[in-house]
Amino acid sequence: xxxxxxxxxxxxxxxxxxxDLAEARExxxxxxxxxxxxxxxxxxxxxxxxxxxxxxxxxRVGGQDCHAAAKGAHTGDISAAMLSDAGATHVILGHSERxxxxxxxxxxxxxxxxxxxxxxxVAIVCIGETEAERAAGATLEVxxxxxxxxxxxxxxxxxxxxxxxxxxxxxxGRTPGAREIAQVHAFLRGQLxxxxxxxxxxxxxxxxxxxxxxxxxxxxxxxxxGASLKAADFGAIIAALGRN
Length: 244
Ligand code: PEP
Known about the structure:
With about 240 residues, the protein is of the alpha/beta class. It is about 35% helix and about 15% strand. The two termini are about 20 Å apart.
């Protein structure tokens, strides 16, 4: 398979009303740099309208979660086919906020990833250590176990992306040092069933640290939360990915 493009994925989390689509339209007005793919994962209520707003721009739309079942009596949940039907091409799975808020286990993430594949979606599987686990020197052990138990057999560069997101770096303004990110990414690369699966870094990526992070070997892009909400900030991060 040819090299996959690097990926800048924005996670809007539980932010975004119709008026915020203006940010996405502004972002879409500038084509992404060569070899860079851009994805925005808004709340489910905005997926269809986001797909409309980005139509023709090449920017893609994703969901933030899906149910493991194809359909059924699951009030309030959303299926992978529904995401696809609304215009999504990707879905974030196993984000640490879902693992914490909803007690989501790695086994559930596997089931959700299989459901995503059945609907033709790319699964973005998130893993990462807590601050206590890092302090205990257990980072590699923790991420290896999460990867092994969260990524189903059959994961390839075409159907899966892995996001390494230290839990303590998400939304905190803190990031690991470049050497620490490099160490984890090099380690994870060796654990992947297909070495072409893209490895994103996530956790407080901002315009002012994006160049440093994207210059790290084995970093194939970023999963960006807060800084993806504003076109100027996400655009600056996308530009950094293009030049590193
Ligand atoms: C995220 O939501 O996955 C994330 C990395 O958030 P932030 O960039 O705000 O730390």
